[in-house]
Structures are given as structure tokens and as C-alpha cells.
Amino acid sequence: MKIKKQEKIFIAACLFPALLLTVVFFLAPLFRGLALSFTKSTATNIGGEFVGLKNYIDLFSDPYFYQALGNTFKLLLFVPFCLNALALTLAFLVTQTRLRERGFYRFLFFFPSIISATALGVLWSNIYSPTLGIVKKLGELLGISSLQSLAVLGNQKTVLIAVGVVMVWQSVGYYMVMYIASIDGIDTSVFEAATMDGCGIIKKIVYITLPILRNMISVTFVLSLSSALAMSYIITSVMTAGGPSGSSTVILYYMYKQAFEQSNFGYAMSVAVVTLILAFLLSKLSRCLTAERE
């Protein structure tokens, strides 16, 4: 069926605003940042001297970049796995136990996801505070001296775990609701047949629910991976500022410091380009690992 000229004009008119926004807010900044990564740009001289691949050569020989990259990968390993495992567990508990207060628990766990990440960072900074925080009070209550004096955010061994816990706590309710919706969409006759065959709750989860949720798990894992990359910057900038001694500096915060503290915009753009490539590769890798096999 041929499309009339008027219909073509109407379709073009509908697509033009979206295309314009994509060009202005995505493609233009993307190519501008790529161009700046080959220059020696500063806050007072954007688009300065062309230096070729110097920024990239300096980047891959910078130990602080590798430290930030390592911290980022640690969070990207910890957060998505813990987040999805906990969200799935909570979803199973809420749906399988048939709680009367199901709506209340769904709201209770979902609530942190609607709070500003900045506000959460401030809240958990106070919780982790070695002078007034809950960790110190818990140590006093239990009589554990090591907890009373533990500076969670000031210890290189615990700071990344502390940041990861906040990121998981903030998002677990959101993914729990997604899993609950998927579980509720499963035909109840499947579970009834399994019950008649003598299957318990564990077998139903392992042999029925998880295989059916495979596509949803794939989607949520990719989403949690990308959101963890973005959230890592916000949480670390509010709670730790990359400290102590760079032990919680993630790649996006490292880019921010280079641009706005060191005024090295060209170098910061090279960090941004490498981050974009890594994010794309991680997304593709996670999709390949979790894709449904025919």
C-alpha cells in the first residue's frame, strides 16, 4: 500500500522534533567531546591546540586512571549481582508467601528508589559517621569496640563495600517490583500442576519461575549495570569525594576531577570517550552472557 504525500509529510513532522532533540542533545555533544579529546583544552581555552593522540597516550600510562577503572569494575561486579539476587529473593518472598501486607512491603522497598541519590548519599554518610552514626551506636549496644571506632568511609578496605551497599539499597525495590510484575504474569495453572506433582516452593522457583524469568533477568541485569555506572559517580562524589587516597574514585568522578578541578578538559574528554566505549562493550557482553539460547 502506497503512502500518500500528505501522510509522508505528517510522519516527517512527527519524527522531526525527536530527531532534532537527538542531534542537539546526543550526537552534537558526542562528536564535540570526541573532537575535544584530541586537543589541549582548558576552562579558558576550549578547543585549544590539537595534540593528536597525546591525551590517550597519557591516559593509558596514568596509574590513577587504572585505579579509578579498577574501583569502577569492582562496583560493577558487586552491585548488579547483589542487586538482582536480592531483588529476586524479595520478589519470591512477597509473591510466594501471599502476605496480606504485600502492597505495604512493595512500597517500603520501592521508596528509596524515588529519593534523590544526593539525599541518599548525605543520609548514609551520617549513618556511617564514626561519631554519630548507627554503626557506632550498634557497636556500643553490642559492646564491640571495633565497630565503635570504625570509620567505614575512611578505611580503604571498607569504603567501596559501603558505597556498593548504598547503591544496592537505593535500587533493590525498583527491580523487585519489576520481578513481581513478571512473576504475577506467569499462568497460575503451571504452579497448580506443579503442586499436584508434589513440587515444593524451591522446586517451583528453580524449575518454573527462574526459566520463565530468564529474559527479564537479562533485561534487569543490563539496566542495573548501566545504572550502577551512573550512580557510582553521584554516590562517591557526595559520600567520599573519591577518598581515602583515591580508593573510592570511580572513572566518572576521575573525569570530573580532571575537567573541573584540574581544568584539563581535553584529557577529561579522552576519559569520557574511553568510558563510553567500555560501557558499550559491557552492555554487549552482559547481553551475550544472559541472552536466551535457542
TrEMBL record:
<keyword id="KW-0472">Membrane</keyword>
<dbReference type="GO" id="GO:0055085">
    <property type="term" value="P:transmembrane transport"/>
</dbReference>
<dbReference type="GO" id="GO:0005886">
    <property type="term" value="C:plasma membrane"/>
</dbReference>
<keyword id="KW-0813">Transport</keyword>
<feature type="transmembrane region" description="Helical">
    <location>
        <begin position="212"/>
        <end position="235"/>
    </location>
</feature>
<keyword id="KW-1003">Cell membrane</keyword>
<protein>
    <submittedName>
        <fullName>Sugar ABC transporter permease</fullName>
    </submittedName>
</protein>
<comment type="similarity">
    <text>Belongs to the binding-protein-dependent transport system permease family.</text>
</comment>
<keyword id="KW-0812">Transmembrane</keyword>
<dbReference type="Pfam" id="PF00528">
    <property type="entry name" value="BPD_transp_1"/>
</dbReference>
<keyword id="KW-1133">Transmembrane helix</keyword>
<dbReference type="InterPro" id="IPR000515">
    <property type="entry name" value="MetI-like"/>
</dbReference>
<dbReference type="InterPro" id="IPR035906">
    <property type="entry name" value="MetI-like_sf"/>
</dbReference>
<feature type="transmembrane region" description="Helical">
    <location>
        <begin position="9"/>
        <end position="31"/>
    </location>
</feature>
<feature type="domain" description="ABC transmembrane type-1">
    <location>
        <begin position="69"/>
        <end position="286"/>
    </location>
</feature>
<feature type="transmembrane region" description="Helical">
    <location>
        <begin position="159"/>
        <end position="181"/>
    </location>
</feature>
<feature type="transmembrane region" description="Helical">
    <location>
        <begin position="75"/>
        <end position="95"/>
    </location>
</feature>
<feature type="transmembrane region" description="Helical">
    <location>
        <begin position="265"/>
        <end position="283"/>
    </location>
</feature>
<feature type="transmembrane region" description="Helical">
    <location>
        <begin position="107"/>
        <end position="127"/>
    </location>
</feature>
<dbReference type="InterPro" id="IPR050809">
    <property type="entry name" value="UgpAE/MalFG_permease"/>
</dbReference>
